[in-house]
Amino acid sequence: MTATEASRRFAALLDAVERGETVIVTRGGRRIASVAPASSGNGRAVLELLSKRRLDADFAADVRSVRELVTDEITTWPDD
Q1: How far apart are CA 34 and CA 23, in angstroms?
Q2: Beta partners for 1?
Q3: Cα 46 to Cα 62: distance, rounded to the nearest angstrom
Q4: Which burial class, exposed, middle or buried, applies to 25 when counting CB atoms under 10 A from its CB (0-12, 13-18, 19+)?
Q5: What would you report as the CA-atom Rg of the chain, rounded to the nearest whole angstrom?
Q6: Residue-level pLDDT at 80
Q7: 1: confidence class by pLDDT, cuts 50, 70, 90
Q8: How far apart are CA 62 and CA 33, in angstroms?
Q9: Which residues contact 66 (CB under 8 A, 6 or more apart)?
Q10: What is the pLDDT of residue 7?
Q11: Of residues 4 and 76, which shows the higher confidence score?
Q12: How far apart are CA 51 and CA 49, in angstroms?
């Protein structure tokens, strides 16, 4: 779908994605975006996997470092 068509038919694009389709958006014949269904996961599967496996020290340290970077703050979109 071209960028112009995606703009003009945004509701139809979202309908297609809601049905499970992935839509590739092009501009000037080049692929510029992929619009796909949002993941419904919340990390539970990752937590289950990590709880079942013994982590080596380096990996455990990496996970702790990433956890320190993660925030629960909700970022708002800038006003147009």
Answers
A1: 6
A2: none
A3: 15
A4: middle
A5: 19
A6: 56
A7: very high
A8: 31
A9: none
A10: 96
A11: 4
A12: 5
Residue 60 has pLDDT above 60, yes or no: yes
In 1-80, DSSP assigns E strands to 23-27, 30-35
- pLDDT, one tens digit per residue, over 4-51 is 999 999 999 999 999 999 999 999 999 999 999 988 777 888 788 878
- Tell me how long the chain is: 80
The tokens for 30 are: 């080049």
Residue 49 CB partners (closer than 8 Å, separation 6+)? none
* Torsion sign (Cα): 52, 53, 57, 61: negative
> Any idea which residue has 């147009």 for tokens?
80
